[in-house]
């Protein structure tokens, strides 16, 4: 039987930390009260927040040079669901799981849905993969997939995406994320306009296969593996394609897929303004196209992104419902610990944005008081909301300190015994 952390163990660990948490919570309540903020309302918002997990993120990622697998890594999609269930059990903020095909392909969708339900999980948007060649496929994607010059390659890539839609529909998903590595490494290698025309032709076929209540998310990426010209390299191209395809096509923003110092929060504002912001892959970046833990490098930018999301939600109400998901590669940490930490950091930024004094901010903006407008944002960002996040987890049955409890449970040691290493096989889809 697969090991799970005993709820009684969680309760015992929480009991040891609850008195200190209550003291910190009451102190923060006083600080917030003086600002006119209700800590109980904020705790409720924290409890309602959710961000989906990437199935591939619970396995160790790799670099171009090597992969150093950890102990007790998942061997298949059911193992991944167990690990995702543990993350949600302790954080209470990650009820969705995003699958990646063919990495997570199963012939028994019903059994997979039942396994997820046992952990209180559901399936978020599914992801297609035409940036690798799958075993046994007829045609290679070496020179492109949805944009390939060979019509048989394009047809194969379209068929794979439609297959992903059918698999996702059987699992209860409501969306498909499409990222392609298509592009060129040399000037002249590809006709740049022709490549985008072929992309749109392929995407129209995929779009036509979407169920009525589904969305397709177009993900852009600045570079890699196409180092000269990437077909869908920026938010403008993504926006143009989503607009061309129709209302079920939205843009997906991956925080790591931009050039250094890019004003991502402004991209968020633009896409939200024109109704094309579909969702996010949360991670962090230092040099360019990185998949670092969320909030590990630039937490202020993460906060500023959520400040724009707060503004869009106030303007557009229930019509504004972007999808949130983590998308990271964990090379030197325990992936479960990194995903728990990242989920909490995303939740933290969301809550800090809720603390922005919008009346004061509007006043300073109208009076062209740049300094005080910036300080208004900084006051919210500097507020340590850790006690609210911990109390939200505690009240929802999670762990006051997820990483400490996870380590105390010896979960990884149990999984090492359950999941013997399979030589030459990676448990993560990421090479």
Topology, element by element:
Blueprint: H1 7-34, H2 39-48, E1 53-54, H3 77-91, E2 96-98, H4 109-118, E3 122-123, E4 126-127, H5 151-171, E5 175-178, E6 183-184, H6 192-208, E7 215-219, E8 229-230, H7 235-245, E9 249-254, H8 264-273, E10 277-282, H9 299-316, E11 323-326, H10 335-354, H11 358-366, H12 370-382, H13 386-395, H14 402-409, H15 411-418
Parallel strand pairs: 1-2, 2-3, 4-5, 5-7, 7-9, 9-10, 10-11
Antiparallel strand pairs: 6-8
Briefly, what is this?
By secondary structure, this protein is of the alpha/beta class.
Provide a descriptive summary of the structure in words.
It is a single chain. By secondary structure, this protein is an alpha/beta fold. 48% of the residues lie in helices and 9% in strands. The strands form three sheets. It has a six-stranded parallel β-sheet. The longest helix has 28 residues, at 7-34.
Task: List the defining traits of the structure above.
431 residues, alpha/beta, 11 strands
* Protein structure class: alpha/beta
Question: Which H/E pattern describes the elements?
Answer: HHEHEHEEHEEHEEHEHEHEHHHHHH
Largest sheet: 6 strands, parallel
What separation lies between the terminal Cα atoms?
30 Å
Please provide the count of β strands.
11
Overall mean pLDDT: 96
Residue windows where pLDDT falls under 50 for at least 5 positions: none
Q: Taking Cα atoms only, what radius of gyration do you get, to the nearest Å?
A: 22 Å
| Range of helix content | 40-55%
Query: In DSSP terms, counting alpha (H) and pi (I) runs of 4 or more, how many helices?
Result: 15
Q: Which percent band covers the strand fraction? A: 5-15%
Order of strands in the sheet with the most strands?
Answer: 4-5-7-9-10-11
């Amino acid at each position: 039987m697969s090991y799970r952390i005993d709820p009684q163990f969680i309760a015992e660990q929480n009991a040891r930390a609850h008195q200190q948490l209550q003291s910190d919570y009451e102190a923060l309540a006083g600080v917030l009260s003086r600002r006119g903020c209700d800590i109980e309302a904020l705790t409720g918002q924290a409890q309602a927040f959710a961000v989906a997990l990437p199935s591939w993120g619970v396995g160790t990622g790799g670099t171009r040079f090597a992969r150093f697998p950890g102990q007790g890594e998942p061997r298949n999609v059911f193992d991944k669901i167990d690990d995702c269930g543990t993350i949600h059990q302790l954080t209470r903020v990650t009820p969705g799981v995003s699958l990646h095909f063919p990495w997570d392909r199963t012939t028994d969708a019903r059994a997979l849905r039942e396994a997820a339900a046992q952990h209180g999980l559901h399936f978020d948007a599914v992801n297609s993969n035409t940036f690798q060649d799958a075993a046994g496929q007829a045609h290679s994607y070496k020179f492109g997939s949805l944009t390939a010059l060979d019509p048989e390659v394009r047809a194969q890539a379209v068929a794979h995406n439609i297959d992903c839609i059918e698999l996702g529909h059987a699992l209860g998903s409501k969306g498909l994320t499409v990222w392609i590595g298509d592009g060129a490494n040399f000037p002249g290698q590809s006709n740049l306009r022709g490549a985008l025309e072929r992309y749109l032709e392929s995407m129209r076929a995929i779009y036509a296969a979407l169920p009525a209540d589904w969305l397709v998310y177009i993900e852009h990426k600045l570079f890699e593996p196409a180092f000269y010209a990437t077909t869908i390299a920026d938010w403008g191209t993504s926006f143009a394609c989503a607009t061309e395809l129709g209302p079920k096509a939205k843009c997906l923003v991956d925080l790591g897929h931009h050039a250094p110092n890019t004003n991502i929060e402004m991209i968020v504002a633009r896409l939200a303004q024109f109704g094309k912001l579909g969702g996010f892959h949360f991670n962090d970046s230092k040099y360019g196209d990185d998949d670092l833990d969320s909030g590990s490098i630039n937490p202020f930018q993460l906060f500023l992104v959520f400040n724009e999301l707060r503004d869009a939600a106030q303007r557009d109400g229930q019509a504004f419902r972007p999808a949130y998901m983590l998308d990271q590669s964990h090379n030197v940490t325990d992936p479960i610990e990194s995903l728990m930490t990242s989920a909490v950091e995303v939740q933290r930024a969301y809550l800090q944005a809720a603390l922005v004094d919008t009346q004061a901010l509007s006043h300073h903006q109208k009076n062209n008081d740049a300094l005080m407008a910036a300080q208004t944002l900084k006051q919210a960002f500097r507020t340590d909301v850790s006690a609210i996040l911990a109390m939200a987890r505690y009240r929802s049955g999670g762990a006051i300190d997820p990483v400490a409890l996870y380590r105390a449970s010896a979960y990884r040691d149990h999984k090492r015994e359950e999941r013997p290493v399979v030589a030459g096989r990676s448990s993560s889809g990421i090479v």
